[in-house]
């Protein structure tokens, strides 16, 4: 038995164009929620369709699930309005632009490395981006290793 506005996991999967296992995965990551009816069957609110669509778009744009969740968690309701989606897409567009700019810069810096192989702390723009070692004065330096990059 299903109430109006409720969807089964199979219905959501079919309408959203994702596998049932994907929905379960999103749920374990806290991106979507469901509840159990009296017969212990999983039910979703119809608004989950928009939410899943947004998650898919964000994933295609290269955003990690943790980042997607952080953004979705800022919204007051599980049902995402058109205005909220507009705002989210604007933020994600800006993030994408920044990533593209950084990758373009990295690619351009890499041009000088092709056929080189020195990986010099002093001369290689990949090892010493923006010549940050020059700001630390003369003499030997070590670059900090950032595991987040
Ligand atoms: S490897 Fe030589 S400049 Fe980057």
From TrEMBL:
Keywords of this entry: 2Fe-2S, DNA-binding, Iron, Iron-sulfur, Metal-binding
UniProt key word Iron-sulfur: yes
Superkingdom of origin organism: Bacteria
Classification via SMART domains: HTH_MERR
Pfam families: MerR_1 (PF13411)
Residue ranges of domain HTH merR-type in the record: 6-74
InterPro entries tied to this protein: DNA-bd_dom_put_sf, MerR-type_HTH_dom, MerR_fam, Redox-sen_tscrpt-act_SoxR
CDD domains: HTH_SoxR
Entry's transmembrane regions: none
Matching Gene3D superfamilies: 1.10.1660.10
UniProt-recorded name of the protein: Redox-sensitive transcriptional activator SoxR
Organism name: Vibrio porteresiae DSM 19223
Gene name linked to the record: soxR
């Amino acid at each position: 038995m299903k109430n109006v506005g409720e969807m089964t996991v199979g219905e959501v999967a079919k309408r959203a164009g994702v596998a049932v296992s994907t929905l379960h995965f999103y749920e374990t990551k806290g991106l979507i929620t469901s509840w159990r009816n009296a017969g212990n069957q999983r039910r979703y609110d119809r608004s989950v369709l928009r939410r899943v669509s947004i998650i898919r778009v964000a994933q295609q744009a290269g955003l990690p699930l943790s980042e997607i969740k952080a953004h979705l968690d800022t919204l007051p309701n599980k049902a995402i309005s058109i205005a909220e989606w507009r705002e989210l897409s604007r933020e994600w567009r800006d993030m994408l632009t920044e990533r593209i700019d950084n990758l373009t810069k990295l690619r351009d810096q890499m041009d000088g490395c092709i056929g080189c192989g020195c990986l010099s702390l002093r001369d290689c723009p990949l090892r010493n981006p923006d010549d940050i070692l020059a700001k630390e004065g003369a003499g030997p330096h070590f670059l900090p290793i950032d595991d987040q990059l």
